[in-house]
Write a structure and sequence with these properties.
Elements: H1 6-25, H2 44-63, E1 66-68, H3 84-104, H4 107-110, E2 113-118, E3 121-127, H5 128-153
Parallel strand pairs: 1-2
Antiparallel strand pairs: 2-3
Helix pairs in contact: 1-3, 1-5, 2-3, 2-5
Length: 169
Amino acid sequence: MYTSSIQKNILAELNHELAQTRKTIERVPFERADYKPHPKSMSLWQLATHVVNLLAFKTLFVTHDSRDFLDPNAPKPGPTPTSLDELLARFDEYSATLRQALSESDDEKLTHNFKLHRGEHVVFDYPKGTAIRIMGLNHSIHHRGQLTVYLRMLDIPVPGLYGPSADEK
């Protein structure tokens, strides 16, 4: 159902994308963690971990007003997971935290700006709702798409994300 609430629309989109992302991550073969389709590419495990860690970053957009990449005291994700079970547990934990933060927010709070910067260099300064959409959802969807290419190249069936995939027909 359509709603004019920014918060409810973002939460609905987030819930849909989280379900699709989890389906993709479930298929990542840990035994192929070092796989890279190109020397400049992230490894399969780096990419899968990045997709999961972006969830914590999205939570920052909701709960804070800025993030300085040069701040040594800024929150950072935990150590790299050493199994698919650990990665999925982190995904579930970060997803729940993000959902809760968004549920506790409201439209007015989502219009406040979030500034991402590296010292004096401003990467972006957007309303929180926009930051969540652009650097949160869109960024994650981009990397999830890369992850599906890795799966295809490893001959692992790709899940359908917006309808059936070629592997599900």
